[in-house]
Amino acid sequence: MRARRGFGRWLPTIGAFVVVGIFLVPVLWTIETSLKTRIAAWSMPPHWIFKPSLANYHAVLFDHGFLLYLKNSMIIAVGATAVSLTLGSLAAYGLERNRFRGKQALFFVFLFAYMIPEMAIALPAYLLGVRFHAIDTYWVLIAMHATFGTAFATWMLRGFFADVPKEVEECALADGCTRWGAFFRIALPLAAPGLVATAVFCLIFSWNDFPYALVLSTLRVETLPVAVGQLKTPAGTAWGEIMAVTVIAFTPTVIFAFLVQKWLVRGLSFGAVK
To answer: Which residue ranges in the chain fall short of pLDDT 50?
Structure first.
């Protein structure tokens, strides 16, 4: 009985390690392949013991000019996230604190906008971009990413503002604070974990976007997900360089998630326990 109880106690931990290991295998394989030469990457059976090399990273960053694509991805992702959080927090706060006819219908409009497939809007967005001479600019990609990001931020942040007690804001209003002051000084700081969690998801969406970047950009503002296709040529596929770009692409989001891990976990569980 003691052995069974001890095994049952360790079973969730063992299961967690197994699941994490399954998800880490592709990541570790990607990192390992990025450190191999082209011959070692194509070798069969695979070489598990080899001399690591940074030649693939040097090739993609300096020879193929992926530093420009990395800069483009950062500018677009940060800009779209900032716009999404700004508009989404205002919309979510207004929907939660104000009572008006059609409020629920308006909220479902935001939810429906988030569910629209990207390719259904990519062509109309391209035609509008051509008309206003905005193709291959940061602004058009930031605007399109913010369209979905704002809808998602509104849908997600409304629940966080709902968990902020109205009485706290009413006390601030009674002390002479304006509605905008109550929003910036009371509601936003209390909902900060939710803002961080929403920012992580908006940043990942914009960073990994492919359809909009493919349709609305050419060479000047091309992003990493689109530029990686250059490494597949008729002469062959440079798997080592592709894996190096993959590592470069997911490293910033992983670092950002680790930096805000405390607020991210708190934001995802905010309101679950009173």
So the answer is: 271-274
